[in-house]
Write a structure and sequence with these properties.
CATH topology of the largest domain: TIM Barrel
Number of domains: 2
CATH class of the largest domain: Alpha Beta
Helix content: 25-40%
CATH superfamily of the largest domain: Enolase-like C-terminal domain
Bound molecules: magnesium ion
Order of helices and strands: EEEHHHHEHEHEHEHEHEHEHEEEH
Strand content: 15-25%
CATH architecture of the largest domain: Alpha-Beta Barrel
Number of strands: 13
Length: about 375
Amino acid sequence: MTKIDKIETTLYRLPLPEAVEAASSGVMADIDMVMVRVWDSDGAQGCGYNPLFSGQGSALVEIINNVCTEIVLQEDPSRIEWIWHKMWRRLHYAGRGGPVSFAIAAVDTALWDLKANSLNLPLWRLLGGFNPEVKAYAGNIDLNFPIDKLLAGADRSLNDGHRSIKMRLGKPSLKEDLSRVKAMRAHIGPDIELMADANEAWRPDQALRALRALREFDLVWVEEPIQPDNFAAYAHLRNNGGVPLSAGENLHTLAEFAALISAGGIDFPEPDLATCGGITPWMKIGHLADAHGLPITSHGVHDIHVHLLAASPNNAYLEVHGFGMNPYIEHPLVVNNGIATAPDRSGHGMEFNWSFLEKFRVN
Ligand SMILES: [Mg+2]
C-alpha cells in the first residue's frame, strides 16, 4: 500500500515589495513563509505553505517537526481526514486554533496537493469541480499610503485586470477614513466594486458609527470592523450598521465559523485555509455557509484558494492578496476583467522556483 515516506519543513523570510500597513498588524516589511513538502512511496509529491507575520514562522516549524511529522509518516496519503484528526487530537491541549491551526494547515495543504497530483487532477476538480472561473478582487494593503498613492494603487489593480478593489480603514479618526473612502469612490466611479477592511480597528460602538457613515459609498462589505470573536456584536452591527460584513481570517476553527454564522453575524464568511486548519476544514466552512444561504469568500493564499472557490457553488470572491508568491512561482495567477481561473495543472499547480527561494531560507 502507498505510504507517506518523507516530509520536509522549511522556513523562509520573504521581503515585501514595499512596507505596507494594516490596522491590526502595523507596518510590515517582510513575511515568514513555512513550506511543507511531502512525498509518498509511489513517488508523488505535494507541497503546502503558510505565509504569516515575520518572526512567527519558527513556532509552526517546531510544531510540525516535533508533532505532525511523526503522525504523517507511514500513513496512507489517501486518508487526509484521518490524518487531519490525528494531528488535531494530538495537538488539542495547546491547540484548537492559533499556531496549531496554522501548522496543521500547511501539512493538510501539502497532503491535498499530493493526493491531487497522485490522481493527476487539478485540486478544484478533486474538491468538487463547480466552475473554474471565480470572481476576484484586489486585496490592497494601504493604510500607510497618502491618498494619491492609495489611488495609484487602485489604478494599478484596474490595469492588472481587477474590477473589484479593497482598501484599508482604521486611521486615528473616522473623519480621515471617510475622506479616503470618498476620494477612492470618486476616483474609481460607481461601477467598480469597493470593499473596505478595518482590521479590527474599532470597538463595537465606534464600528456602528463608522458603518452608518460609510453607507453612502456603496461598499460590497466592511471587513473585520471589530475583534473577531465578539459574535454578538457582529450580529448587532450586521442588524444595525446598514453595510454588509465580512470576517474570517482571524477565526481559526470550524467551530468559530459555526458560532459566528449561527449568531447571524456575517454576510461574507471569509475563511483562510492557512489560518483555519487547512483545506479540510475550509471546505466544511464553505458548505456550512452554503447551508445557511451565505456566499463564501477567501483571505490570502490566492493561488490555492482559487481552487477551493472553483469547487464551491456558493463562491463569491477570491481575494488576490498583497502577500502573493508571484516572484517565487512559475505561473502567477492572472485576473482578466475581474475573473480568475483555476488552473488545470495537477494539484494546486504552483510550481515553486526552489533555487530562487533558497536565497530566503532561514532554516
Ligand atoms: Mg482582512
